[in-house]
């Protein structure tokens, strides 16, 4: 059986938490969940759908009322063919990615490809390691190679003196760690897996939309809410006005000005 694993962010500390009500007794959402409990949740959530799991990591700041988590879940409900994926969603969500269509339909199905990354910009060459990857959304085929890589990545990050997990991974790609382990990567087209770095929003194609190139949670919330409003307009069959990611632009600009 194939096993897929999709990670949306990867950071500690982790709070394991099932998203949709799973048919077993009370689940402790505190940080100390026994390993066998987690194993049970994993099994439950990965049933069917080629054992696909959507894993996201909870960030406390995002879980406030009307916060990023609410917005994230709304995108699944308003998206096209994304609602059933909520059943796959195991852990919630330090996530600034809106799921507007089912991304699994736009991923390369080849079993030879181990990891597929979204990028801040796409140079048209899916195999080119110089595409600027973004770990906000990526897809991992679970196999011995990728499991070993995640162990390595975890160790490298733990010993990196506070480097961000994305930067540690970038370093591992640059210094050939993935290549020497035979890990095959692909970079995903921003036309489908879009983001604010690239103001490209073709709603007839957009699959996921990431609030990258945006510094503050506040700005992400405002601009992602606008994306969802535009999406609703699009789904209604109306012409979508061009709304730039104004708040993100201004916040980032303020940040730059301060330096
Ligand atoms: C499961 O994987 C097979 C082979 O890659 C694919 O044809 C099928 O569509 C997948 N099913 C789902 C539900 O993703
Ligand atoms: C998926 O990857 C395989 C292996 O590299 C490649 O041959 C194929 O063309 C890719 N398929 C798509 C739809 O990009
Ligand atoms: C993966 O690792 C397990 C445990 O070490 C081993 O039994 C299995 O044969 C390996 N699978 C492949 C495809 O190498
Ligand atoms: C992380 O690193 C610290 C110090 O380098 C070490 O003591 C600890 O065991 C490591 N944690 C894990 C889970 O590997
Ligand atoms: C590559 O970079 C990673 C992450 O910093 C590090 O752990 C690893 O030892 C490096 N490997 C080589 C061959 O330099
Ligand atoms: C979508 O259409 C419905 C019914 O015509 C309307 O009530 C609603 O306001 C529209 N929503 C948007 C976002 O345009």
Automatic annotation (TrEMBL):
Signal recorded as keyword: yes
Domain Nucleotide-diphospho-sugar transferase: 91-223
Keywords of this entry: Signal
Top-level taxon: Eukaryota
Signal peptide per UniProt: 1-16
Pfam family, one: Nucleotid_trans
Protein name: Nucleotide-diphospho-sugar transferase domain-containing protein
Organism expressing this protein natively: Acorus calamus (Sweet flag)
Taxonomic classification: Eukaryota, Viridiplantae, Streptophyta, Embryophyta, Tracheophyta
């Amino acid at each position: 059986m194939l096993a897929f694993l999709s990670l949306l962010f990867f950071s500690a500390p982790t709070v394991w938490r099932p998203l949709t009500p799973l048919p077993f007794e009370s689940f402790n959402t505190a940080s100390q969940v026994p390993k066998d409990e987690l194993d049970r949740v994993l099994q439950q959530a990965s049933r069917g759908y080629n054992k696909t799991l959507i894993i996201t990591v909870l960030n406390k700041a995002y879980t406030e009322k009307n916060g990023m988590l609410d917005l994230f879940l709304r995108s699944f409900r308003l998206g096209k063919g994304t609602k059933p994926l909520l059943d796959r969603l195991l852990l919630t969500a330090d996530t600034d990615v809106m799921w507007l269509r089912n991304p699994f339909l736009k991923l390369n199905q080849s079993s030879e490809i181990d990891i597929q990354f979204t990028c801040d910009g796409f140079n048209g060459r899916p195999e080119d390691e110089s595409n600027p990857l973004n770990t906000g959304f990526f897809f991992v085929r679970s196999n011995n190679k990728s499991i070993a890589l995640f162990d390595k990545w975890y160790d490298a990050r733990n010993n990196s003196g506070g480097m961000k997990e994305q930067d540690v991974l970038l370093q591992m790609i640059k210094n050939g760690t993935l290549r020497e382990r035979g890990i095959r990567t692909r970079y995903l087209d921003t036309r489908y897996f879009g983001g604010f770095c690239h103001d490209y929003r073709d709603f007839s194609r957009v699959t996921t939309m990431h609030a990258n190139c945006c510094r503050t949670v506040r700005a992400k919330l405002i601009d992602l809410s606008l994306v969802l409003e535009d999406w609703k307009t699009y789904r209604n069959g109306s012409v979508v006005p061009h709304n730039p990611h104004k708040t993100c632009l201004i916040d980032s600009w303020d940040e730059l000005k301060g330096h």
